[in-house]
Amino acid sequence: MRVLGMIGGTSWHATEAYYRMINEGVARHIGTQGNPELVLHSINIEVMRSQDGDRIRAKYLEVARLLEQHGAQGIVICANTPHMVYQHVQPRIGIPILHIADATGRAAASRGLKTLGLLGNKPTMTGDFIPGRLQTEFGIETLIPEEPSIPKSHYFISRELTHGKFTEEARQFYKAQIGLLRDRGADGIILGCTELPLLIREEDVDVPLLATTDLHAEMAVDFILERD
Predict the structure, then answer these.
(1) What's the CATH class of domain 4-99+215-224?
(2) How far apart are the first and last CA of the chain?
(3) Residues 6 or more apart whose Cβ sits within 8 Å of residue 107
(4) Does the predicted TM-score (pTM) go above 0.70?
């Protein structure tokens, strides 16, 4: 099995979910008599919250190089938003970073989905690191909520969901956003936050849901088992 490096901490709740799903995924293939070799570095979430782009990019590059030095053969960044550093970090290291948009794009393509609505925090929805890669690598168009709803989504994620608070108000908000995105042409919805699948399930809506964390963890399992 390949050794996988993990960059976590943003948030540690998401990192815990990745660690569990990767180990469970490998166990489904090799049994419980063994487990994958993982090299984990958990970054202080304050780095991301600083919104200092240079500082964020420098930190992720520093950690990626450390993981490579410690034997990692590939890297998974355990959250959506930090993938904003991909274009800066990937050319400066010698091992692959498994991009969360690639995991999402492959799943969408396998289901014949061409236009995806994207839900997440403000940087994830308004940045180009997921929509741009989906368009370039898979020819998939991405839609995001209308402007008044973007800060509200950011609030629910940053102030409630990532703190383990799941309210009916948030659930109804996201169900409404899914309906609006579907009406604008989305034939699938990206749940671009680890906690969103805990709030909204596919049986709650009438459009396919793509949970990025689950798909990214599956991609990591395939990499570890050399099935990529």
Answers:
(1) alpha beta
(2) 12
(3) 210, 215
(4) yes
Q: Which amino acid is at 7?
A: I
Fold classified for 101-212: Rossmann fold (3.40.50)
Residue 67: helix, strand or coil by DSSP? helix
Strands of the sheet containing 97-98, edge to edge, are 38-42, 4-8, 74-77, 97-98
- Cβ-count burial 216-227 (b if 16+ within 10 Å, e if not): bbbbbbbbbeee
Q: Which helix (H) or strand (E) holds 119?
A: strand 115-119
Residues of the chain within CATH 3.40.50.1860 domain(s) are: 4-99+215-224, 101-212
- What does each C-alpha distance from 69 to 5, 7, 93, 95, 223 come to in angstroms? 10, 14, 10, 10, 19
Tokens of 211: 């949970």
Quick one: which H or E segment has residue 137?
helix 131-138
Residue type, 95: I
Residue 120 structure tokens: 């997440």
pLDDT in tens, 102-158: 999 999 999 999 999 999 999 999 999 999 999 999 999 999 999 999 999 999 998
- Pairing type for strands 38-42 and 209-211 reads unpaired
Cβ contact 39:5 at 8 Å: yes
pLDDT tens profile 200-211: 988 889 999 999
Cβ–Cβ under 8 Å, residues 37 and 220: no
Residue given tokens 């540690």 in the structure block:
12
Paired tokens of 69: 């030095």
